Amino acid sequence: MTERQNEVLAVLGRLTDAWNDGDAAAYARLFTEDADYVTFFGMNMPGRALIESSHRALFEGLMKGSKLVPGGGEPTVRFIRPDVAIVVSGGGSSLSGADKPEPGRESTLTYVLVEEPEGWRVASFQNTRVSDPAAGARPGGERRTLG
Fold it and tell me: Coiled coil: which residue ranges (predicted)?
């Protein structure tokens, strides 16, 4: 990894630390003011203020005590301009403190980071749950396969 790639990945490390500390303000500060945050179920939370308030609710409720953990191999960092990087990474969450994502909680994560005067910030984030489309279930629990 180059020094610039490490700078970008350090932001993701700080995101993980803030999540694991349950610190919504520190988590949100790592996003641009106008960031887009797309959850694993497809909801977009635009803007740093909404990212902070929604994560505060998560950290005080459903995801209290949860941990972000790595998964899915090494992240890739690609610069599309010197001040814009795309990172694709695996990861997920653990409600039990495990060191890998719990079943059904592993995701592929896509970040677009921009370099601002304060440093690198996340301008866009997409969380996509890892799943097997061939094992998807239809309403009512009926299994289906491709083909």
Answer: none
What does the pLDDT look like over 15-57, one tens digit per residue? Answer: 999 999 999 999 999 999 999 999 988 899 999 999 999 999 9
pTM of the model: 0.86
- How do strand 31-38 and strand 119-129 relate by DSSP bridges? parallel
Total of domains in the chain: 1
Host domain of residue 17? 3-131
DSSP string, 93-133: EESS--SSPPTT-EEEEEEEEEEETTEEEEEEEEEEE---G
| Residue 85 one-letter amino acid | A
